[in-house]
Each structure stands twice: as C-alpha cells, then as structure tokens.
Amino acid sequence: MPATVVGLDIGRCAVRAVELRRSGRRLVVRRHGSVALPQGAVEAGVVRDPAAVTDALKRLWREHRIGSRSVRLGVCSGSVLVRHLELDWMPPQDLRRALRYQVADLLPVAVDDANLDHVLLGELTRTDPRTGVERRVVEILLVATARGNVDDLVRCVQAAGLRPVTADLSPLALVRAAVSRSSHPAGSNGGPLTEAVIDVGADTVSVAVHTDGVPHFVRVVPGVGGELLTRALVDEGGLTWTAAEEAKRRPGSALPATARLALEAATERLVAEIRATLDFHSTGDPAHVATHAVITGGGAAQTGFAARCAAALGMPVTALDLASVAQLRTAAIDDLSVSIGLCLGETA
Fold first, then answer.
1. Positive or negative, the Cα torsion across 76, 79, 84, 90?
2. From CA 321, how far away is CA 176, in angstroms rounded?
3. Please, which residues have CB within 8 angstroms of residue 24's CB and are 6 or more apart in sequence?
4. Three-state secondary structure along 66-101?
5. Which alpha helices (H) appear in the chain, and where do they start and end?
6. H or E segment to which residue 285 belongs
C-alpha cells in the first residue's frame, strides 16, 4: 500500500481532495480541502472549461499543501451505464480481456468509444429447463463510461501536474464509505442490510443499492440535483442566487409564499426522481430491495430533506455520517464523502 492515498472529486461546484494514510488499523487524514469552480466549468460530470478546472486543481494542491500527486479520480456523469450481467464463466484475466466483445451490443456507443470496467459479484450454476444441461456463469456489474468524458477529466488532472493512478465510479466509492462507518446498521434479525446510498449533487443524483458492500444497482441521473431547488427559488420565488442557496439550507427560513411553494414543488420533483429510481430497481431485482437509505451531497443539505425522503420511500433515511472514518468536522465530511470513499478503495 502506498504511504498516502489521495481521493479527488471533481464536482459541479468545486474540486475536493482528501489525503489519507493508514496507521495500524486507523485511517488518518493528513490533508483535505476544496476549491470552488466557476459556474459552468463542469456540468453533470462533464468538463466544459478545462482551463478553469486545471487552475482550481493547482490551487487546491498549493493552498491545502496536499503532499502526494498520485490521485484516485472519481467519475460520475450522465453517460455512465451500470448493468447487472451473467456471462459464461471464464478465468478473471480472460474475462477482462474478452469483456469488450461480450458487451459490445449492450452499449449506447461504439465499444471503442467506451471505457469499461466491472465488479465481480460471484459465480452461479444455471440449469437449462428444457435440456437439464448445467452451465457455469459469472455475475458481474458492468460499468461503462464515454471515453471522451473520462479522458477530459484525466487531461485536466495531468495538466495540473497530478498523476491519476485509477478512475473509480463515485457512487461505488460512496458505497465503500457507507459500509465503513461504525454506525452502519444491521439488516432484519441482525442479517445483511440492503441499503441505498443517495448522493444529491448540484446537477446530478446518483443512487447505488448494495448489501454489505456488494453492489446490485447504480444509476446516475443528470440534470436533477440541488440546483433544481435553487433555480426554482430564483425563477419563481424572486430570490437572488446567493439568497436562494442560503434559504434552502437555513432552518426556519421565512420565505415569501411564492418562494415557499416553488421550493416545495422542486423538492417534490427531486424526491420523486429518487423514488422512481428505487422503484425501477425493486421491480427488476426483488431479491435486493433496499430497506434503509443514507443521503449525502450538498443538494441534500436542505432542512428536512431526509424526512421527506423517508416519507416518500417508506424506509428510514439518515445522513451519511463519516465521523467514525475520518476525524474531520461534520461539514467538511459531508463535502468530502466521495473523496474519502475513493481513498478507501486503496486502503481497504
């Protein structure tokens, strides 16, 4: 294991990094920080202004004195495709080489234009009901992203003098973070817990469903997030952008009636998107229905948002608390959940 690990999250509003090292069984945060990005520099995980992103990364390393320049990069855009598949069994090294040919027909883009990875879930034996012939299969979670989007992120990182050692799907990093917390609840009768990890960013929402860290489902929804609420307060409530950002998070905020109704409608749309995503998963995979959910991300900071989600989803919903994983103040941990999860992929 390297001496230190850095998780780098390039989001809609900021670039964020955490530098962790392992001391015995403890994870120690050496450095952490974030630098804001200008409006429009990154949209739904896609780089629109490479120069602005590169400049922010240089500032992040300089101002927060992060030591290592090797980073684990988070990827989360609307172009991400994650699908559960069963393929004929083959040795892991052969599976990795053959994956491009096995899944080419499933991709929305040409296979040469996609970055592919997979999570190995297990092995099964299937019996043909007509012939009785048994077939050994392997279960995987396929992860495919548009090559151009990832390459743009990598170029920004390299232009800032950093070295991306791996790119990891941000929702899967959050699954690792959720499992690592000491407050992670048990399932019914103390058995395994199937949990939804919901990240509400500025302009994306990601939902990952897992059982004790084994992922079953991931979906990234672009164009929906915390800025949906802010935009409603600006366009329909008459607030300035800055006032709207403050109002949606401030407990007991005294909003004008029009702004309050606009915020209510936008929140309902956001929660409905989360509910529809989990309903879609439950229909397709009734064996792994989430019974608990955790939420994270700046877009989930609205007062009472967890309670709204709990009422809509019909399950307990709590904030993702990583205080037991990294000794940081709570606000910083909320902002850095993805970065911490990226680090855990190396330190596990």
1. negative
2. 13
3. none
4. CCCCEEEEEECCCCCEEEEEEEECCCHHHHHHHHHH
5. 50-64, 92-103, 147-159, 170-180, 226-235, 241-247, 257-284, 305-313, 330-335, 337-347
6. none
**Dihedral of alpha carbons 222, 234, 48, 202, sign:** negative
The C-alpha atoms of residue 109 and residue 304 are separated, in whole angstroms, by: 40
C-alpha 31: how far from its chain's center?
A: 22
Bridge partners of residue 340, in order along the sequence: none
Residue with tokens 């802010």: 230
Closest CA to 321 of 184, 200, 212, 204: 184
**Backbone conformation region of residue 41, classed left if phi is above 0, alpha if psi is from -120 to 50, else beta:** alpha
pLDDT digits (tens, 9 = 90+) for 277-294: 999 999 999 999 999 999
Which pLDDT band, with edges at 50, 70 and 90, does 183 fall under?
A: low
Q: Give the pair of three-digit tokens for residue 277.
A: 């995503």
pTM, full prediction: 0.88
The share of the chain scoring above pLDDT 90, in percent, equals 49
CA gap 270, 308 in Å, rounded:
10
In this prediction, residue 318 carries a pLDDT of 93
The residues, ordered by sequence, that sit 6+ positions from 254 with a Cβ below 8 Å of its Cβ are none
Q: How far apart are the C-alpha atoms of 51 and 83, rounded to whole Å?
A: 34
Convert the pLDDT of each residue in 93-129 to its tens digit. Answer: 888 888 888 888 877 778 888 888 888 888 888 888 8
Kind of pairing, strands 70-75 and 163-169? parallel
